[in-house]
Amino acid sequence: MIMSNGALLVAGTTSDAGKSVLTAGICRWLRRRGVRVAPFKAQNMSNNSAVTPDGGEIGRAQALQAAACGLVPDTRFNPVLLKPGSERSSQIVLRGKPHGFLDAADFARLGPMVADTVAESLAGLRRDFDAVICEGAGSPTEINLRHHDIVNMGLAREADMPVVIVGDIDKGGVFAHLFGTVALMSREDQALVAGFVINKFRGDVGLLRPGLDQLEGLTGRPTFGVVPWHLDLWLDAEDDVAYGRVLGRPAPPRGREWLDVAVVRLPRMSNATDAEALACEPGVRVRMTIEPSELSAADLIVLPGSKSTVDDLAWLRSRGLDAVIEEHAQAGKPLLGLCGGYQMLGRVIRDDVESRRSEVPGLGLLPVEVDFAAEKTLRRPTGTYDGVPVGGYEIHHGVDHVADGTPAMFTLPDGTGEGARLGAVSGTHWHGAFEHDDFRRAYLTEAATRAGADFTVAPGTSFAAVREGMLDLLGDLVEEHLDTAALLRVIADGAPAGLPFLPPGAPGAPSQAQGTMGR
């Protein structure tokens, strides 16, 4: 197919409406058609991130969307990333690099500060690709933030880009959400909304038809399709990391027992997706939890990454979970710390960067001391684990100092070590290591032995194949359940002219004369 300078913004009625996965699905579908396509999210707010080959940091959802396009991660795909460290403060990552901190009270100044960066990144992608599929953030009608918007309708106005709004029917009230989203927009913003997509539907689509017809009659805009809810869409979730969540749907165990893995659901958890590769293994049950009983019963406890290591360590102690973790380790059962979780396992943490609480004691389960550096470490290392090849990516301020003679978790190509191991307790700064199949199998085999579980690792599980299968499934859902011919016209030609307006629009919503993207 011939397409030039095509673009689309996938907006949502709410957070977790399905913007990320629909964007990935559209990207995969276009790539199959021979379109050179790239993803884009002007501003993401997430502690789940990935490292680009040149050492930049972007949202993990954009890394997944890049994979859907057959591309390696690029900082242009997500030029602004906000990483919340508390209820009122976030670290700003600009063009892949840390760029200070932003308080909630100063949020309005962010748009004008980064508008040029966003515009330049998008313009560069549109020059280099046939189509750019953009993901919005939250809702496009957060009218209190509209004047400084750079990721939803402000972006669409600046780039003269058509918009599709996706609503999650599983939340209820989807017709009101879709209608109200458009009705609260100014006339200039409404003119860019080409239509709707309904997501996560269960049942007979025929039952929705009267509502779809009425929605089109009320708004003058079609629903491009109804995407069904699907069990296999669970990898790389940014929003769905609630307490008690069981990851994936693993096949039954090959041995006589399941291997139970408990991931401590920290309040400021980052890169929670590390545990997802474990959940792809037959017989491995992975649960996000804060319940002491579930931690005590687990074969393996995982302390994940954290955007605020010292604060999450204090929270851990306030709930008495530190005692449960220590008892687990003293019993000789496997315990793994990843990034911030690894730092918690050490003897002491000296932090004048994130928490600014100077020196605090760690859990003391590994002979490691950690000093926080002002400069963030961002890299994609490789090494071995007992001779088994492994790789990952690092995103951290903490610098670990491991006591002499302590075995490393990984051996680097130059012969030095990374991380630490002491009996059944181990830790590393590497994210993504479990995506390497041979290492994952070697680690789980050792963990099962230490836990005394009658568990046999399956030999053939490929995490890369599981992820590719999910991306292909997303492409299939787009192709089978959306009006792709109409969607192609919108991407290539923009929103149709002469779309009707819904009165009254939001009082005080920006007019064309007031500018967009915070300018």
From TrEMBL:
Residues 9-233 form the CobQ/CobB/MinD/ParA nucleotide binding domain. PROSITE patterns: GATASE_COBBQ. The active site is at C339 (nucleophile), H431. Keywords: Cobalamin biosynthesis, Glutamine amidotransferase, Ligase. InterPro entries: Class_I_gatase-like, CobQ/CobB/MinD/ParA_Nub-bd_dom, CobQ_GATase1, CobQ_N, CobQ_synth, GATase_3, P-loop_NTPase. Residues 260-438 form the CobB/CobQ-like glutamine amidotransferase domain. PANTHER family: COBYRIC ACID SYNTHASE, DETHIOBIOTIN SYNTHETASE. This is Cobyric acid synthase. It comes from Phytomonospora endophytica. The lineage of its organism: Bacteria, Bacillati, Actinomycetota, Actinomycetes, Micromonosporales. The gene is cobQ.
